[in-house]
Amino acid sequence: MNQDQLKQAVAAAAIEQVKDAIYDGEIIGIGTGSTANCFIDLLADFKNDIKATVASSEASAERLRGHGIEVMDLNSAGTLAVYVDGADESNHRLELIKGGGAALTREKIVAAASKKFICIADESKLVDQLGAFPLPVEVIPMARSYVARELLKLGGNPVYREGVVTDNGNIILDVYDFMIATPQKTEETINGITGVVTNGIFALRPADLLLLGTPEGVRTLQR
Ligand code: 5RP
């Protein structure tokens, strides 16, 4: 099985997890990235059943609308029953690194506003310690150099993601060489730097369920 097939398999498993919520008339939170795209494409089969969705990026919103699925503003939707999204890394406590697609802030907001967060990923994303994947940090543009200096002081190696502007009009610094031993503490510390919008550690609000694609089938990890 190649990586695309593993993504398809976890997306199909996630559909099984959200079917009841769809038929109960719940609004579904939708993430961003290639694995989330697989999920969105499978959701198209339910376009006549699904009440509405909330998307964590303009790209996902566009893809959902392309399938004829309604996308709502989170402010009108209230608390969501379930949010489905991918990740760049997950540890065994289902603490994540996200933001490879630069959508981390909206992803964190939708995850925070959801009762259940289902993470879908292929098995290459499961790690013992977060940090081999460079940590994305969304930053207000005028604070870029200041935040980079503060991240250096924390021991990381921040690199400006050239040419990328987030859906919120901000920039991304990717922090290399930064192994994360205490994810909750590091998430709080980086979020405390003035000019940081948020960082890609999802430890204060981790996933509740991780559906992991393996050649032997979909593995389920629960908190
Ligand atoms: C986007 C994300 C994605 O969930 C993450 O990058 C994983 O993407 P993919 O499913 O393409 O591997 O956090 O900001």
Tell me the number of strands. 13
In round numbers, the mean pLDDT is 98
What proportion strand?
Answer: 25-35%
Write out the strand line-up for the largest beta sheet, numbering strands in chain order.
2-1-3-6-12-13
The computed structural class is: alpha/beta
In total, the number of domains comes to 2
Rg from Cα: 17 Å
Tally of helical runs: 7
| Approximate helicity band | 25-40%
Low-confidence stretches: none
- In the CATH hierarchy, the third-tier topology of the largest domain is known as Rossmann fold
Biggest sheet features? 6 strands, mixed
Instruction: Indicate the overall shape.
Output: globular
Separation, N- and C-terminal Cα atoms: 27 Å
Given this structure, which CATH class of the largest domain is correct? Alpha Beta
Oligomeric state of shown chains? single chain
Bound molecules: ribulose-5-phosphate
- The CATH architecture of the largest domain can be given as 3-Layer(aba) Sandwich
